[in-house]
Design goal:
By secondary structure, the protein is of the alpha/beta class. It has one domain: Periplasmic binding protein-like II (D-Maltodextrin-Binding Protein, domain 2, 3-Layer(aba) Sandwich), CATH 3.40.190.10. Helices cover 59% and strands 15% of the residues. It has a three-stranded parallel sheet with strand order 2-1-3, with helices on both faces. Strand 1, helix 2 and strand 2 (54-58) form a beta-alpha-beta unit.
């Protein structure tokens, strides 16, 4: 079940990674805490495969929304 979301995330982040890799920037990913562990696992797999760092911030939206509005590359949902 995790395999399909993992592939989707890897594909989505791959589309953003080329320019970030050239600039040495990490990808900034935000979303709710429920799916945080699978998202972090996907981020680690992506980093291992591409060398592009992924910073996953998860929890209640009120805790990360302002920062995400400034630098989010990906925002994921809980359902």
């Amino acid at each position: 079940m995790l395999e399909s979301p993992r592939r989707f995330l890897l594909l989505l982040i791959s589309s953003l990674s080329l320019s970030l890799l050239a600039h040495g920037q990490p990808l900034h990913v935000y979303g709710p805490g429920g799916p945080a562990e699978p998202m972090k696992a996907c981020a680690a797999a992506f980093t291992k495969q591409t060398g592009v760092a992924v910073d996953v911030t998860a929890g209640p939206e009120a805790q990360w929304l302002e920062k995400a509005l400034q630098d989010a590359d990906v925002v994921y949902g809980g359902a």
